[in-house]
Design goal:
homodimer, 243 residues, mainly alpha, 11 helices, 70% helix, globular
């Protein structure tokens, strides 16, 4: 294993995205191509809610481990993005507008009663990873955001064109994410390039991004298994009306 | 929520098993009924290896949190069962005989390189649960062993009858498990009955067993998705020759 230049490290990170980011998962092909039933879109939004809800927990646990006020301040903007400045504001509230508009009861969504265990285990694995690995790996695991503007643009276009139950208002969460993601990525990618200056640390960074891609992928595997094929919903999880 | 008698609590626990234990999962129907390819049996054994390998970690973390020497001593027998008294002895070594005999390279199995992320996340969720919840919940989560003698007997009979690549020697892991499981269950069930004496603690015990059933179920969901239908292997995971 040799030391990579900053440019080589970024290329290696982008290569992981090109091979393993969940944009390539068959469920996203169905979702964005208008091939999902309303029940499948509901199941997607319901399960993804748990990911959204845990992001500030994950980010706060990263801040809690960081002894550099400059990094903590920078990372704090992610808490603001997701939790907002007041009730009804921020990414989680916007995600609940999406589940509202899909006809899901808000109490049911936030109770997590209908969540797939596979979703819970994957998201919790991410939260534990950020709390237990090195700060460098924790920061590197956020870098899937490098690849999110493309998938968000495909999602907005595809869902608006294909589903009569989806409106621009429904998707307001995604409207605000790309500039936030770009700002976050600028910081995290720069941090990783500056701090991964041994081959071992560079490999740890690449491993962290692969791990995070696995998390996002496993969430869609669980969704596909339960709601697309073979449509085997695990005991206790959400069953759409059109299942 | 009312207080249950010991007998009612045991009945409620057995009812969870009857509804949610992974004996009911379609993958086990295929495995035990001779409907799996050799590659699917390999994938099952490879993934289940990670569960086996993490069991002593889970049990040691439970012992590490327990301030009663009598309980620690009792629980220590589980470490002996899985790690053995010497190299080549114990449940993990016996599981590796199974993967050996299925033609999997031992280094590949133990490297975990081919593991499904869904397996990893489910097993890690179990380890975290035992390390983070109350001792009572940690002990209660082991109670899926109440239901294991039946599934092991079905598995031995079904696999020996249906697969020419499976021998009694291959399945030696399962030969020794039922008496160990019975001893473990006697202790854990008694502990739970004695220590869950409020409605809240009884509900926590029932929730712990449901959680553990979800872990085992999610492992088979991941396996089914990757290797049975729609046979979508996540990036980087094991691909059998006959896939």
């Amino acid at each position: 294993v040799k030391l990579l230049s900053s440019e080589e490290l970024e290329t290696a990170l982008r290569d992981i995205g090109a091979r393993r980011y969940h944009r390539l998962h068959p469920f996203h092909g169905l979702l964005h191509g208008g091939k999902c039933t309303k029940g499948q879109v509901q199941a997607w939004a319901l399960n993804r809610y748990y990911y959204q809800a845990m992001i500030p927990i994950k980010d706060a646990s990263l801040i809690a481990r960081c002894h550099d006020p400059a990094v903590r301040r920078e990372w704090r903007s992610r808490l603001v993005d997701h939790d907002g400045e007041r009730e009804g504001d921020g990414g989680i509230a916007r995600w609940l507008k999406l589940t509202d508009s899909l006809g899901l009861e808000r109490d049911y969504v936030t109770s997590l009663r209908g969540l797939l265990p596979g979703t819970r285990f994957a998201v919790d694995a991410y939260v534990h990873f950020v709390g237990e690995k090195t700060l460098l790996e924790a920061i590197a695991s956020s870098l899937t955001e490098m690849f999110s503007p493309v998938i968000i643009s495909e999602r907005m276009t595809g869902m608006l064109a294909n589903y009569d139950f989806v409106t621009r208002e429904t998707l307001s969460y995604f409207d605000v994410r790309p500039p936030q993601a770009r700002r976050d990525v600028d910081f995290a990618l720069n941090y990783v390039k500056l701090n991964a200056r041994t081959p071992e640390r560079q490999q740890a960074v690449l491993g962290a991004l692969e791990f995070k891609c696995d998390v996002l992928w496993a969430m869609l595997d669980a969704l596909y298994h339960a709601y697309v094929a073979p449509k085997q919903v695990p005991p206790g999880a959400f069953v759409p009306e059109d299942h």
